[in-house]
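Session log. Operator J.P. requested a structure for one protein chain; no other inputs attached. Running the standard single-chain path with token output.
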Amino acid sequence: MAFDITKFIDRFVEEAREHVNAINQGMMALEKNPADMEVIHQIFRSAHTIKGSSRMFKLLSISDLSHKVEDVFGALREKKIEYSPELSGVLYKGVDAIAALIEKAASGEETQVDQSKLMQRLEAAAEGRFTEARSDVSVKAAPILPANRVITADAPVVQGALPTAAQAISAPEPASPTKPSEKNKTGETIRVSVDKLNELIRLVSEITSRQSRAKQSWQEVSQAAKQLKGIAARLNVAQAAASSEGVGGSPELLNQLAKKLSSIATSGRYDFELQNLLAKELQERSLQLRMLPLATIYDTFHRSAREIIEFSGKDASFSIVGGEIEMDKKIIEKLGDPLIHMLRNAVDHGLEAPEERLALGKPARGNINLTACYEGDKVLFVLTDDGRGLSQEKIREKALKSGLYSSAVLAGMSISEIQNLIFLPGFSTCSIITDISGRGVGMDVVRKNIVDDLKGSISIDSKEGVGTTFQLRLPLTLAIMHVVIIEVAGVMYALPDNYINEILRVGRAGVIEVFDKLAVNVREQLVPVEKLQTILGLSGKSEGKSDELLLLVVKVGAERLGLVVDNIIDEEDMVIKSLPKHMQANKIVSGVIITGRDQLVNVLNVPAIFLAAKEAKSTLGRGAAEVSREIKVLVVDDSVNTREIEKSILEAYGYQVTLAGDGVEALEKARKVKYDIVITDVEMPRMDGFTLTQTLRAEEKYHDTPIMLLTSRDKEEDKRRGIQVGANAYILKGDFEQSNLIATIENLL
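Structure written below.
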């Protein structure tokens, strides 16, 4: 469900202005009484709130500057330094700069401004060091505007974060001042907007897709010519036998019409074949216009890798090969996030700490490699690490503990099936959820993006103690897909052919029973078999032959499944159209195509078919009552803005939300009502999030209740304390994403 966080910008600005005023008033109070610890606590909380709220909106300059101001007041609170005129001067410059940036955000201006010199002075001040006052503040102080300042509807909302890979690709370049007919000085080029290019490719794809209509037309004309010729032949025979005068010259006339129609059909076939070739070439040439090199997103990966490795405290080298490989821009836009997820998992789950690697006889520095190459009409990505590999024992334990499968079912699974469990929603072997990993959404997101959205495949090859290799295969473009049209119980369906491994006929005697499943032996490998009619829940009568089965062997990753179908109708290059919004909850169908006879045919989602085939015989899983039960969520945060954002998101997903402004209020409400999950900030007045968590854990009814800390405190000791007091998740507000919040809640529940 889409959620527009930008509508909260005006509320953020209003709240941030109030906190800036509170800081200024508090600093004036400190000038009179520097030892007033209560005032210092209040100022610290205000700076902390601005830091957390701005991080949620990716306003990094405001967040970073607030963080430094917070550090200074933290040092005052811990009595590491004393309040002085020199310290006051540096702090006022910092607060004024924050105020100026807040006003930039309010007016829609760019807030990503170099504050390095001022931040260095604040950092030195927190350590009790002061440099001579200089006018080195990057942003001039701005007056605090009235709290009722209104942001106009057309004012752009500015976010201070660096653009994502997809944003960097999709950002349109400014229009060229030259006329379309003029040549660019650097060569025979012309600048075209992305929207115009996308529209061109859409039209070309539709033309290619509608070739099936032209094919259908000449086939029908050809069939009509044959039928007419047959009628004429029968009339000739009847006239000769009966010497009938009533027919006259009609057989001869029908023969002439049949020949003419046959000639038209032949000509139509030649025209169709030529037009088909031209349409395919036009499609290929137009798609090349939207092809971009993988270097477009690879260039950001090195920086991301450095940040992830540094944050994890591990030592690793990261290499990339294949930046020159070109793919459709639409695919590249969606490829960055899953690859970053996999990179993060390779570092956090895969690589061991340097001391652990040395003890195992490995080099202290680990290796992570990402390569890409062409493989037919697809691109193959290979991500490898030389870490600890996937632990089958841990995966089995997690699956058993989560109630996903029984011990008997897990014992019968192959190595590949066990490893593929990491792609299940909410699956993680981590003991606590952090902003880096453990949510159980990383690999689930990877599979959804690669398999469901990009129509690709993913497979794993892992050896414990040696390392892990992931292979991703993706089509070059999604503009048009080659599909196979089948018939099941009198209904037509389509399957993307990139999932179809092979098509074969098998005698019913060749189907064997293995445990509680049916399978066929295909080149010394057992392939499970399921009737597609049963999976889809169709009640019509099957029209397949009684003595043999027609199997479509489909493949997702390393898993294969034989689907029993009645007939194969055709195969075509088609545009797959999205389902309307009210039907998108149907996981079995991923879209529709329009045939040459203007029939709407559902395109089946093969990965969902795999899951449905497994669940058909499964007696495990949560009951319907548990799924449909209304979930009560307690949200605790001293920031009104943050509370309202979280409340809006959670209520949009059907959760029942109660708000509390601090730990004391939250504890009072928690003792009156049993909540299913608690989401709390850490830095709050009266009672902080750590104390609240520890207090709730001591009470019997909250002993096992999931508790999530959503905070801007990013120090490692804070995370360790979160684990010690019993939190299940520790998420940084700077990494706040709607989908991560919901997925984390679902995982914890």
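Operator note: The domain at 293-475 is CATH 3.30.565.10 (Heat Shock Protein 90).
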